[in-house]
Amino acid sequence: MPNTNTRNLHELSADIAAVVRDVVATGEDAVITDDGTEVAVIMSMADYDRLHLYAELADAARPGYAGATEFRAMSISEMLDVLGVHPTVDRGLRG
């Protein structure tokens, strides 16, 4: 799991530009909290694109997915298992 910065939602508006620049420069996600509860994350576009690519690959790897009219949502951990991706090895993914 990458190092993660945690920011409070109420304080974020004052330094959003700095937070985004820090995420881009360091590759560390910024977790946003609201009253102590994690509610969102700011991540680099590279990590976002990689996450969506893994999700698409996981969908395509599911038996019976091709041409299916319905789908079942899967958790991140299920998706990583289908892909054989291990979060401790693959930078940018949270387990």
From TrEMBL:
<comment type="function">
    <text>Antitoxin component of a type II toxin-antitoxin (TA) system.</text>
</comment>
<comment type="similarity">
    <text>Belongs to the phD/YefM antitoxin family.</text>
</comment>
<dbReference type="InterPro" id="IPR036165">
    <property type="entry name" value="YefM-like_sf"/>
</dbReference>
<dbReference type="InterPro" id="IPR006442">
    <property type="entry name" value="Antitoxin_Phd/YefM"/>
</dbReference>
<protein>
    <recommendedName>
        <fullName>Antitoxin</fullName>
    </recommendedName>
</protein>
<dbReference type="Pfam" id="PF02604">
    <property type="entry name" value="PhdYeFM_antitox"/>
</dbReference>
